[in-house]
Amino acid sequence: MNTTNHRNPVLLVHGIIRTSKVFRRMSAYLTKQGWSVHTLDLKPNDATVSLDQLATQVADYVDQTFSSRQPIDLVGLSMGGLVTRYYLQRLGGIERVQRFISISAPNHGTWLAYLSARPGCVQMRPGSQFLKDLNRDASMLKRLNFTYIWTPWDFIIVPARSSQMPVGREVKVQVLAHALVVRSPQAMRVLASALSEQIEEGSEAEG
Asked: Transmembrane stretches, by residue range (predicted)?
């Protein structure tokens, strides 16, 4: 039975070095559950341009793909979690999106970003101006059904707790590596549950 007519389309946004292929398993899972799933490839995907520049690609994709009257749900993985947050918080995406799910995003930076001086990596360093700007009004995400998923066994987001947020619903999954979270059956079930939630004014963080 086709149930997509009463569900928002879902846009999945990948992280650094990755492409939309990273969502192959997750996309198939959501499609089987009845969602209309969309992906895009951020270019370049190696942090040689700033995250705010990449966010304009998300904005352009949304504007070109969906009617202005069509609400969407948004999923950001790793670096894509920050790209999508910039789209939501700075490019007006919060007016288009109803549900936002962040997966293993460096919301407070990662020490591994010091390994490169590329613009996107500099922005992902703890305490960067980019992160300070996004986090100073992160409370605006209360307007969405916002869920963030993370694993304490993340060795790319260092420290792993950097994925935590002061707003939204927290879901901690016991997955043994950053790259495996997007393929984790547990994470996919959590994602499907978050995408099924009724729209509310906002949600309180769970610790």
From this structure: none
Domain 4-196, CATH: 3.40.50.1820
Cα 9 to its chain centre, rounded Å, is 15
Strand order through the sheet with 72-77:
37-40, 10-13, 72-77, 97-103, 145-150, 169-172
Question: What is this structure's pTM?
Answer: 0.93
Helical residues (DSSP H) of 33-184, grouped into ranges = 51-65, 79-90, 119-123, 129-136
6 pLDDT band (50/70/90 cuts)?
confident
Chain centre to alpha carbon of residue 194: 13
Task: Give residue 200's pLDDT.
Answer: 54
For 73-108, b/e burial (b = at least 16 CB within 10 A) is: bbbbbbbbbbbbbbbbbebebbebbbbbbbbbbbbb
Domains of the chain, residue spans: 4-196
